[in-house]
Amino acid sequence: MAVDPSPPARTRVVLADAATRRSAADRAGTDLAEQTPIGEALVKGLVRAQLALALRLALVVAAGLGTLPLLFAVAPTVGSVKVFGVHLPWVLLGLLSFPFLVGVGAAYVRWAERNEQDFAALIRRPEQ
Length: 128
Known about the structure:
- The protein is mainly alpha-helical and 128 residues long.
- The protein has helices spanning 15-25, 27-33, 37-74, 76-79, 88-95, 97-124, and strands spanning 82-83, 86-87.
């Protein structure tokens, strides 16, 4: 067995350079993790965006489904129309309201995820 008398070459690791390089790009993430006022403001912005989206779509649902009984009360002749042998109010409120609600729910999920992706991109974006 031969023993190699020369030790391996040493590599110097400087952590200060890595820390300063990371802190500029990850400042928003650090603000979130440490719950600083800036991080709190970022989270409040996301919550406001999600709340605004939910309220807008709730208004769409209320306008879409809430005005139908009003329409049938104001114009009773519309309520007496038959579609496939069933009165129009039953078709609209009992049958077509479910696909409408599923569509609004799917739109909400898509737009809420887009809000979250925008928030995540804002967090990951390096400062300029």
